[in-house]
Fold this sequence. Notes:
Layout: E1 2-8, E2 14-21, E3 26-31, H1 43-47, E4 49-53, H2 59-62, H3 65-72, E5 80-84, H4 88-97, E6 110-116, E7 120-127, E8 136-137, E9 141-142, E10 146-149, E11 154-161, E12 165-172, E13 176-179, H5 181-186, H6 194-199, E14 208-211, E15 214-217, H7 218-225, E16 226-229, E17 233-237, H8 245-255, E18 260-264, H9 272-277, H10 283-293, E19 297-301, H11 310-320, E20 326-327, H12 330-362
Parallel strand pairs: 3-4, 4-5, 5-6, 17-18, 18-19, 19-20
Antiparallel strand pairs: 1-2, 2-3, 6-7, 7-8, 7-9, 10-11, 11-12, 12-17, 13-16, 14-15
Helix pairs in contact: 10-11
Amino acid sequence: MIEYDVLGQIGLDNCVAARVCTGTANHHLLLDAGGDCLQQLRRPQVYATIGVLFSHFHFDHYAGFDELLRAVWNRNGPLLQVIGPPGTCQVLQHRLQGYLWNNAPGQPGGFRVSEFDGQTLQTIRLLTTEKFEIAHAEPVVETSSLVWEHDDFAVHAIQLDHGTPSIGYRIQEPDSVSVQENQLAEMGLRRGPWLKSLKDSRFPDTDTVNVEGIPYELGQLRQSLLLKKRGTSLGYLTDFRADDQAVRHQLRQVFFELDVLICENNYRNDERELAVQNHHLTASEVGRLALELQPQDLVLFHVSDRYYGQELLDQLEEVRVHYPRARFPQDWQKKIERQCQRAKIQETDSARSTGSAAGDIVD
Length: 363
């Protein structure tokens, strides 16, 4: 299962904290690191972060990185994985070099930093004990989308255009296969080592396996005994235009039929010229893109500070014209509704004040 929280305030910096929960482990990931966003997380959760996926390095997506750095710079265990657009290796090393590390030698920890250009993945390792001075390069990997393969999840990426490269991410759990105990009992079969072959996809359906001396075809047993469950998925798209058909084709390949798509909603429809100028989407463009990608749940975030209260609800409706399942994060929805209530109270008070003043003039 993949859980998530949208961090940050409405109209200010945002990012997403994701958790891949396997039942035996929780893997904590960050998608971007906006200013003040990580303050919403408990310290142990920040410390447990194993990876940061940066879309790009504008202030509002990167300003909170130091909060993470303070928690993990000398942490034991695997290096923290950082992935981002072209230039990420240089950006991270320069950021780290901006601090004094006289106490770093002998300390554990460090970063494994990868940058994705849409075709290749270049990776370096920066170690705390070396004061992050040496970039240990790993072999360049050719890849169309896979940028991180973990035992319990995979991360796929696409390079988009924000006037600068901006990376969109898909976090995907592997499909799971379980044995239906009731079917096993009905067939009179007992558990044993043969079940490993049954669940191992490397063995073709035409192979046979002996169960208590009786040969069975794997394909027949799989059809009767196995229950396949699709792994959950989460997509993250922010700060980009998608006018080109080739880009939309790539988006469909990587982001089709997500469980959750978290997507920017930066401009209302009547400000399309500004959206194009600043390389963002309008509300209707978000809705039409979702219609192509068909996520189960479309969560809108990264809205402009130019909108407030009812304007945000109007913007949401512009998305819902095309994709009715669109919504804001639940806590945002409540805050926006309170903004609307305050605005109505202010309007009422203003009208009363105006009426009283007019009455005074008449008197």
